[in-house]
Design goal:
The chain has helices spanning about 60-65, 70-95, 100-120, 140-150, 180-185, 230-235, 335-365, 380-395, 395-415, 430-450, 455-460; strands at about 20-25, 30-40, 40-45, 50-55, 155-160, 165-170, 175-180, 190-195, 205-210, 215-220, 240-245, 255-265, 270, 285, 290-305, 315-320, 330-335. It has three domains: about 5-70, SH3 type barrels (Roll); about 95-330, Beta Barrel (Thrombin, subunit H); about 335-460, no CATH class. The protein has about 475 residues and is an alpha+beta fold. The two termini are about 40 Å apart. About 35% of the residues lie in helices and about 25% in strands. The longest helix is centred in the last third of the chain and has 31 residues, at about 335-365. The protein is elongated and about 75 Å long.
């Protein structure tokens, strides 16, 4: 996921000391407003009644021009913030670990109710041409049963310490290998793999794809598997029906979720089959050809109001399957080594997020809210406490400026200390990509804190008590 593309574009006005009245397009007036920070989409100000963030589209043209407002950059910057929020949510989900299983259990009742409703309505699919593999008299229920019967011996349920997912056995270069998402196995030192008949599948050699969210391991219990589409665009097109067969909600049962292909790209196939948590690793089967066109991998839900009144992308729920026909090479690893990589990267991502929230806290109103940074796992908790303690202790402006500068230098150091010895090539492909993205973001965070080291910028953004 691309995140942080515009973090370094945070600007700070050199005229912040000048208090002016700002009136927005709807007539709201901010008296004695002082600009404290400029983002591509928002102007931060303090005013006679407090603080405010004013969207640039609400400001008069003269102010937009003064601060170089670019509507296109504003839209992209909002996308960045939404992506970063999604990244943080993913990280926190992983950190919950065992709690995920509780969430699954709580969702089972709702899921079962939805399943009963789906069965009673037979999904009411739109009429579609009868494929060559289906006789004119075959109804939808029979077709569903037929697809499941063909695939059932190749479907597996994967369970680990940090949750559950799906997988399947497929033919690859003459071998029957278990396929799943790399993120299903990431962080799990131990996991079990079972067929739907409770047959234990013993994972043997493990490997992950370079640059793809795909993991495989060998096994000897099942001799044949599903067929992978040799080239997705040659067998499938937009509008074709697909089936996602997997462990919905991690409940330990295989479900059949139907939908259609809505998009095809070089790395992913987009579908409207409404797969959910636990379906990660499920095969997405193209019904006309009976081949696997991807692995259910990613669900994105976002709300935007920037694409126009009638755009279908204002509130969007999208689901993607990782293509495996483009799989070029695999890197051998072990569950222990792969889990160790995850533990390292998890801490790095957490520290990056904590640094970002501290920076945004400072930019919000120029002050640090202690309670926002006191989580026991937050490495910044101690420096923040010490800074606020020292600020309260000194009275002279010179001493306070020294405290502030020392604090900011410490934060710049914190952006480097845990990653200076890391090299992406030390990690396997899936984790390497995550690490490279976070290291790029970390550079932008460091640049942002270095800007604050400027005396004028620092004085303006971190108000002295």
């Amino acid at each position: 996921m691309k995140v942080g593309l515009f973090f370094a574009t945070l600007l700070f006005s050199a005229e912040a000391a000048l208090a002016v009245d700002i009136t927005t397009r709807d007539g709201t007036t901010y008296r004695h407003a002082v600009v404290t920070a400029v983002e591509p989409d928002v102007l931060h100000v303090t005013h006679s009644n407090g603080v405010a963030r004013i969207p640039f589209e609400d400001l008069p043209t003269s102010i937009q021009q003064k601060y170089h407002y670019d509507p296109a950059k504003a839209v992209e910057y909002r996308h960045f913030k939404a992506e970063r929020a999604a990244t943080r949510e993913t990280t926190e989900t992983r950190q919950r670990g065992a709690r995920e299983r509780t969430d699954v259990n709580e969702g089972e009742h709702q899921f079962r109710g939805e399943a009963e409703s789906a069965r009673s309505n037979a999904d009411r699919p739109a009429p579609s041409p009868v494929s060559s593999a289906t006789s004119p008299g075959t109804n939808v229920t029979e077709r569903r049963s037929d697809e499941f019967s063909k695939a059932k011996d190749s479907l597996v349920v994967i369970s680990g310490e940090r949750g559950a997912g799906s997988g399947f056995i497929a033919e690859y270069k003459g071998r029957a290998l278990v396929f799943t998402n790399a993120h299903v196995l990431s962080g799990n030192l131990h996991y079990t793999v079972r067929g739907i008949g409770n047959q234990a599948i013993q994972p043997r050699e493990m490997a992950v794809a370079k640059g793809l969210d795909v993991a495989v391991f060998s096994q000897s219990e099942v001799s044949h598997g599903l067929q992978i589409a040799p080239k997705v665009e040659d067998v499938a097109t937009i509008g074709d029906e697909v089936a996602v067969l997997g462990n919905s909600l991690g409940a330990g049962v295989i479900t059949d979720i139907r939908g259609k292909i809505t998009g095809i790209g070089p790395d992913f196939v987009e579908v409207d089959a409404k797969f959910v948590t636990g379906n990660s690793g499920s095969p997405v089967i193209h019904l006309k050809s009976g081949t696997v066109v991807g692995i259910a991998t990613l669900l994105i839900y976002r709300e935007f109001k920037t694409f126009g009144k009638d755009s279908k992308f204002n509130a969007v729920e999208r689901r993607f399957a990782q293509r495996i026909d483009r799989l070029q090479s695999l890197e051998a690893t072990t569950p222990t080594a792969f889990s160790s990589e995850y533990m390292i990267i998890e801490k790095i991502i957490k520290h990056t997020d904590d640094l970002i929230w501290l920076f945004l806290d400072i930019c919000d109103d120029g002050k640090i809210q202690l309670e926002r940074h006191q989580n026991t796992a937050n490495r910044l908790a101690r420096p923040v406490r010490e800074y606020l303690h020292d600020v309260a202790k000194f009275n002279s402006k010179g001493d306070l400026m020294d405290v502030k500068e020392r604090f900011l230098r410490n934060l710049v150091f914190e952006t480097k200390v845990d990653v200076r010895e890391l090299r992406p090539e030390m990690f396997t492909g899936y984790h390497r990509k995550i690490l490279e993205e976070d290291l790029e973001l970390r550079k932008k965070v460091r640049n942002a804190f270095e800007q604050l080291l400027n005396i004028q910028t620092g004085t303006r953004l971190m108000q002295l008590p």
